[in-house]
Design a protein that fits this description.
alpha+beta, 2 domains, 6 helices, 182 residues, single chain, ADP-ribosylation fold, three-stranded antiparallel beta sheet, Arc Repressor Mutant, subunit A
Length: 182
């Protein structure tokens, strides 16, 4: 599978498994899983043939590790980023003292005033390192990295979870826990 098709397939899977499973006529279970054979059959029925080996390639080579197989390998789901209601079943986890959030500079005034909200997603996404946060912020314009005082948030009762691909998730980040990186 060439790089161009791999990227195109990854984007398609993200759309289906995170946002619009009905687009191909599938339903995710409450935890976001769908059987691989169901997904491949639904894609084929709509003229988008994908083999299990090609799907494996997309899952294994995705640099953001966006997808995960169930332990038995029979089901697949997106690791995080859903706009459809799912419960990933992630346990509350003690966060590192500081986490990071990348955003575009044009969003900074509103974020510093209102905090971070999940918007259309189920959770606010945070990174464990500034490099990842910078790359995320750069997708939307000139990047700004915000520091999140995760230790203080956790002490105040905010819950954190970490997805299978290392993205930290929380419901909201109030503005008092944010500062601008340098």
């Amino acid at each position: 599978m060439d790089e161009k098709r791999t990227v195109k397939t990854s984007k398609m899977l993200s759309r289906i498994l995170r946002h619009d499973p009905g687009r191909v006529g599938i339903t995710l279970d409450p935890a976001g899983w769908v059987r691989v054979d169901t997904l491949l059959g639904a894609l084929a029925a709509r003229g988008n043939r994908l083999t299990r080996a090609e799907l494996d390639h997309v899952v294994e080579t995705n640099n953001k590790r966006r997808f995960a197989y169930s332990p038995d390998g029979l089901s697949i789901r997106a690791s995080q980023g859903h706009t459809v209601a799912v419960d990933l079943g992630l346990a509350a986890t003690e966060p590192p003292p500081v986490l990071f959030h990348g955003t575009a500079s044009r969003s900074l005034p509103a974020i510093l005033r209102e905090g971070l909200r999940p918007m259309a997603r189920q959770d606010v996404h945070l990174s464990a390192d500034t490099g990842t946060a910078t790359r995320v912020g750069a997708r939307h314009g000139r990047p700004v990295v915000l520091l999140v005082d995760a230790a203080a948030m956790a002490a105040a009762g905010h819950e954190f979870r970490v997805s299978a691909n290392g993205v930290w998730l929380t419901d909201v980040v109030p503005p008092e826990y944010l500062s601008q990186g340098r």
